[in-house]
Amino acid sequence: MQELLKRKKGLHRKVIIVDDEFIQREMLGAMLSDLYEVDFAENGAVALEMIRREQNTLSLIILDLHMPEMDGYSLLSVIKNEPELSRIPVIVLTSEREAEAKSLRMGASDFITKPYDMPDVIRARVSRSIELAENSIIIHETERDELTGLFHKEFFFEYGKMVDKQNDYAPMDAIVLDVNRFHVINELYGRSYGDLVLRRLGNFIHDIVNGSGGLACRSDSNCFYVYIPHSDDIDGLLNKYTELLKKIIGDSKISIRIGACSDDRTELDMEQRFDRARLACRKLRRTYTTSFSIYDSVLHDKELHSERLISDMDRALEEKQFIVVYQPKYDIRGDKPILSSAEALVRWKHPDLGMIGPGEFISLFEDNGLIQKLDRYVWSETAANIRSWKECFGHSVPVSVNVSRVDIFNPLLSEILTGIMKTAGLENGELLLEITESAYTDNSERIIDTVSSLRQMGFRIEMDDFGCGYSSLNMLTSLPIDALKLDMKFIHNICVSPKDLRLVEIMIEIARLLEVPVIAEGVETAEQMELLKNAGCDIIQGYYFSRPLPPEDFAKLLEKEKENA
Predict the structure, then answer these.
(1) Does residue 279 contact residue 303 with C-beta atoms inside 8 Å?
(2) What is the dihedral of CA 38, 43, 45, 50, to 10 degrees?
(3) Which residue of 273, 384, 406, 496 pairs with 174 in a disulfide if CB–CB is 3.0 to 4.6 A?
(4) Backbone angles phi, psi at 562, to 5 degrees
């Protein structure tokens, strides 16, 4: 590609003239040598050796058809059947009408008739053949993904719209394939292994398109789009794909999510179909086996509900419909549990839809970036409440707030947080920042730099959802954190499952090696609390002690704690 670009800027292109007649070679060479770097070969065998040696810099082959030791037809067949050589345009030399048609069918780009009595025409044909070939290569390079050979997303949609129009909008199905937790695969096994997985998936998609018609692209690093003629048995087709993928990928640790929008005779354009296929794919986000989902009326209703929440968000922020509640955290290392901090959680009291839990809107806002507005609202409300309690009771109760991965990539994050704390008249250490374990693996170097900077400013960092399996042990040793927070799903069965209890003990031991305290959330019974305390857990959070409380009820709890101190 680099050589091609250089030649496009005006440097001489290289041309090989292959002809067994010396005078004919010299005549053509004289016509072209002022414009091109010209080499000569007296037969096909010699030419083939030169072509293979010069293939990366060669712009054109001018080929006589009748020669000894490999004629022009034989050489043309070799050139067009070897991928490395087939990009080089070939102009054949002939005086036979039948030969012109045959050579064009075999892949020749043009022909020059004998005798050579029109030099301007010959030069124009040579120039045009080279230009067309170079433009074709440039188009191919820009339309195709280098790793998989599939179309790039932009070309895919433009080409697909043209195909729809040319085929009178025949029924088509949109399919999205996504590799689960691909960033973790690269982190744990290396980028070369990740590329191997993508190539295998790309080859599988090529087979789909070649077998059924249609087209496909690599949309993002680990996401692929397939647009194929409609199948009346889309369930059966996708089930077949999932089974084939398990064999083709050949690694039980890697799974593929497949979402589809089957043509339902509605007036949807191509992009709308893929929007729906992506929604079906996202439904499987927390499914870690190769599986599929098809867009249906349930997802359609969910989509409408999501759009309602998105459109109502700004008004909800203005009217303070979002309610921040606080769940206490208790230090259990002593003889008596002591209220040490809290976690800020958010609920939405919608004027029409009633109380909406965070499960309905948090991930939705994370997907479209709106989570930054909500997080800033929660941080400000929390800082104001910390200040109020501090003034009322004479001491500060640190509160942890969620910092999404979207926030972390905001270059103004530090300024926003310090500005909120300054406005509230608080020290940075009075706000604890919770960052999920999975966020650290998205762009570990960038996130580690950001979190390190926040710690230098005095903020304390808690790794949320620890134990979900995203972090490698090597990564853990370099993470800038002040506490590990165990995901609540590990707590549920510790009273009945020795394996679950042992797993929690191992995670606590890891925290000891890292010299950071452990927080367990989702604790609901005294038995769970005792087991965790015996295992060495430091801080407990859950319904055993208290449900999440509105600010005024949390203030009453602080007052009660002060009286009992």
Answers:
(1) yes
(2) -10
(3) 273
(4) -65, -40
Q: Quote the CA–CA distance of 472 and 548 in Å, as a whole number.
A: 32
**What pTM, to 2 d.p., does this model score?**
0.61
**Order of strands, sheet of 36-41, starting from the edge strand that comes earlier in the sequence:** 36-41, 13-18, 58-64, 90-94, 110-113
Give the residue extent of every domain in the chain: 2-143, 151-295, 309-560
* Residue range 528-538, pLDDT digits in tens: 999 999 999 99
Strand partners of residue 399: 342, 431
DSSP-derived secondary structure for 513-540: HHT--EEEE---SHHHHHHHHHHT--EE
Residue type, 415: E
User: Going by CATH, does the domain composed of 309-560 fall within 3.20.20.450?
Assistant: yes
**How is the chain split among helix, strand and coil, in percent rounded to 5?**
50, 20, 30
Tokens describing residue 314: 């700004």
Q: Check pLDDT > 70 for residue 18.
A: yes
Backbone phi, psi, residue 542, to 5° = 155, 180
DSSP-assigned letter for residue 489: G
The pLDDT of residue 2 is above 60: no
**What is the rounded end-to-end Cα distance, in angstroms, of the chain?**
75
CA atoms of 366 and 140, how far apart (whole Å): 36
Residue 33's contacts (CB-CB under 8 Å, 6 or more residues apart) are none
Count of residues making up the chain: 565
Q: For residue 115, say if its preceding peptide bond is cis, omega within 30 degrees of 0.
A: yes
Distance CA 91, CA 65 (A): 10
**What class does CATH assign to 151-295?**
alpha beta
Between CA 93 and CA 73 the distance in angstroms is 11
Is the CB of residue 38 less than 8 Å from the CB of residue 165?
A: no
Residue 358 CA to residue 371 CA, distance in Å, equals 11
CB 521 within 8 A of CB 485: yes
- Quick one: which of 316, 438, 393 has its CA closest to 554? 393
Q: Which two tokens stand for residue 439?
A: 């966020």
Check pLDDT > 70 for residue 49. yes
Look at residues 240, 184, 265, 252 and name the one whose alpha carbon lies nearest to residue 471: 184
Percent of the chain residues topping a pLDDT of 70: 92
- Contact at 8 Å (CB) between 488 and 521? yes
CB neighbour list of residue 271: distance below 8 Å, 6 or more residues apart? 157
Q: Helix (H, G, I), strand (E, B), or coil: what is residue 510?
A: helix
State the Cα–Cα distance between residues 240 and 345, nearest whole angstrom: 43
What whole-number distance in Å separates Cα of residue 213 and Cα of residue 66?
40
| % of the chain at pLDDT higher than 90 | 44
175/278 Cα distance (integer angstroms)? 8
Residue 190 CB coordination number (10 Å): 11
Residue type, 251: D
Q: What does the pLDDT look like over 401-460, one tens digit per residue?
A: 999 888 988 999 999 999 999 999 999 999 999 988 666 665 567 788 888 999 999 999
